[in-house]
Target: DUF3817 domain-containing protein
Amino acid sequence: MNIQSLRVVGTIEGISFLLLLFVAMPVKYFLGNPILVKYIGMGHGVLFVLFLLVLFIVCERQKWSIQIFLLGLFASVLPFAPFFFDRKLKKLQQQQDQTSSQ
Model:
């Protein structure tokens, strides 16, 4: 697992969260059809757990502080926040690439 893997999983998890909140939930409550919540919710739950697992592994391998893990955890429960966390990860990835190329 590397930073790029974390970024990909985080982006997919963030998209699944937005689909759950802004597509599946309105369909359930405004149209009375809960089927999308069942499937999108299940997918989002799996992606959420996967994101936390990958976040933990990458934090351990990169020897990042607990603050970065907590920032990722916090970002994963707020709409749109995973995309801001991804910008942080991109900066960390660029720093790592610069360090390894020297």
Remarks:
- The mean pLDDT is 94.
- The first helix runs from residue 3 to 31.
- The chain has one domain: 3-94.
- The helical segments are 3-31, 35-62, 66-75, 81-101.
